[in-house]
């Protein structure tokens, strides 16, 4: 039969000339095990026997009804028919009591046989371009290049998610059936396509998100619990459990071991949580690739570069970008308590990269916050990566189109943040620079804006209304009034010629 594929699947027709032959595409193993076939056959036999018994019981009950009209009591029954009368009477009296014992096994047997029948008729084909399933006479195809996520259960691939978020559910195995060849073939096609982009994101300093599992430059976090790279040797996904092999043997019985054990036994039922996460094999491969690179770096550390050579290297890099790259290092001292910040700001023709590290205390929680912001030439924030470590560990990563629309790494939209062109991270004065540089207000001019406000150390984000008013402007800087419209907080900020905060009364002071 000719395979007609829907246009939206974008699957070339020549992939599958015929679903009935293996000359195009490769048929995979049957989804029903030998033991399942035997059980299903036994179920069919039991179903027939139970059905026969049901019919016999019904016939007996009806027969007794006829006899009961002839003989009103057992005393009226002739002696040669008395035994048969009592047998029929017993079946009649217990007919409804016997029904559950017949109907339930009969229904279970029919369901089991039905699943066997459907699975036995399932066809699954694969080639280098994609996959085709034929299930209940319905054909559905997907291209490998169109897959963004895949999910696992007991080592089997259960569903594939396209870039447009539509899903292809794969026929499932039953009763111990093995489809290892199919799973291995699917995974072998997807891993080379999904792993390199994830590795590239990590190398750019971004937080690579697998929903509740996240990978950052600091380590791995699951539901806010961080395990640093220095304490990891390898990770593995086996029997629906995420396992860690530690870098040091003595740590197996220590705090680290307990922390990973908590991942699998929390009240939220982590097995269910882990099974709902996408691309777990990509996560495992990415973590182990990062660890391998770190181990190679430790085994073969680079030779320290002399200061004179380092200076020449910086000059060479500057010349490669047209000599327009400008790097600035700033430090702020936190005035309201223990804490300080270091910021590395790099500006070139492609935009601005802000890399900051904050050490502080919030509500008696000691924390270290690392942030990295990608900003375009017009000072629109395009993406941010945040990582908190300390007594509480969190990670966050969001993308912006520069027009006030935000998504996470999986493409999920954050409609609550629509219209937020800037972000405001608590515990840093740098994010005040974003609207100051973007708005370029004239003296006396005021502008009300909406920002994505990020609290520390929990990294929760919410929209917040603010107002900036330009008070003075000089060649060496200026001053601005900042107002939080969701509260009564107001401050007058003094900035330098780059718009960086010099003095934030009672909170920050540039060092």
TrEMBL record:
Region of interest (Disordered), residue spans: 295-323
Pfam family, one: Glycolipid_bind
InterPro entries: DUF6585, Glycolipid-bd_prot_put
Parts of the chain that traverse the membrane: 36-59, 95-118
Top-rank taxon: Bacteria
UniProt keyword list: Membrane, Transmembrane, Transmembrane helix
Protein name as annotated: Uncharacterized protein
Species: Dictyobacter alpinus
Highest classification ranks of the organism: Bacteria, Bacillati, Chloroflexota, Ktedonobacteria, Ktedonobacterales
């Amino acid at each position: 039969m000719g395979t007609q594929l829907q246009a939206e699947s974008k699957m070339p027709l020549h992939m599958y000339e015929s679903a009935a032959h293996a000359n195009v595409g490769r048929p995979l193993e049957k989804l029903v095990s030998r033991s399942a076939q035997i059980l299903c056959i036994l179920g069919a036999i039991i179903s027939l026997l139970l059905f026969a018994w049901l019919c016999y019981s019904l016939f007996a009950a009806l027969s007794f009804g006829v006899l009961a009209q002839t003989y009103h009591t057992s005393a009226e029954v002739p002696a040669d028919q008395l035994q048969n009368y009592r047998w029929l009477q017993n079946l009649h009296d217990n007919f409804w009591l016997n029904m559950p014992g017949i109907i339930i096994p009969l229904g279970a047997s029919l369901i089991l046989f039905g699943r066997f029948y459907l699975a036995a008729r399932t066809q699954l084909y694969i080639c280098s371009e994609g996959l085709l399933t034929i299930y209940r006479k319905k054909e559905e195809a997907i291209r490998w290049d169109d897959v963004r996520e895949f999910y696992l259960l007991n080592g089997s691939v259960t569903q594939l998610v396209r870039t447009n978020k539509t899903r292809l559910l794969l026929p499932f195995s039953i009763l111990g059936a093995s489809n290892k060849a199919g799973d291995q073939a699917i995974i072998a096609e997807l891993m080379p396509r999904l792993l390199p982009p994830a590795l590239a994101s990590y190398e750019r300093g971004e937080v690579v998100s697998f929903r509740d599992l996240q990978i950052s430059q600091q380590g791995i976090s699951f539901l806010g619990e961080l395990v640093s790279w220095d304490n990891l040797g390898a990770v593995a996904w086996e029997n629906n459990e995420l396992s860690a092999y530690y870098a040091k043997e003595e740590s197996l019985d220590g705090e680290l071991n307990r922390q990973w054990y908590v991942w699998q036994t929390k009240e939220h039922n982590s097995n269910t949580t882990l099974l709902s996460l996408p691309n777990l094999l990509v996560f495992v491969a990415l973590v182990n690739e990062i660890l391998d690179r770190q181990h190679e770096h430790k085994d073969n550390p680079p030779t320290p570069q002399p200061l004179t050579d380092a200076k020449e290297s910086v000059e060479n890099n500057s010349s490669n970008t047209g000599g327009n790259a400008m790097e600035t290092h700033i430090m702020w001292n936190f005035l309201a308590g223990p804490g300080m910040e270091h910021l590395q700001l790099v500006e070139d023709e492609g935009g601005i990269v802000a890399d900051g590290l904050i050490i502080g205390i919030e509500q008696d929680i000691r924390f270290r916050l690392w942030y990295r912001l990608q900003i375009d030439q017009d000072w629109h924030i395009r993406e941010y990566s945040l990582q908190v470590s300390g007594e509480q560990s969190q990670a966050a990563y969001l993308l912006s189109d520069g027009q006030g629309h935000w998504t996470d790494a999986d493409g999920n939209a954050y409609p609550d943040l629509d219209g937020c062109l800037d972000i405001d991270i608590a515990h840093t004065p740098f994010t005040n620079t974003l609207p100051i540089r973007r708005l370029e207000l004239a003296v006396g001019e005021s502008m009300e804006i909406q920002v994505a406000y990020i609290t520390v150390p929990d990294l929760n984000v919410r929209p917040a209304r603010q107002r900036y008013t330009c008070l003075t402007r000089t060649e060496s800087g200026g001053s601005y009034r900042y107002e939080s419209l969701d509260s009564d907080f107001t401050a007058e900020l003094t900035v330098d010629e780059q718009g960086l905060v010099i003095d934030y009364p009672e909170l920050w002071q540039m060092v």
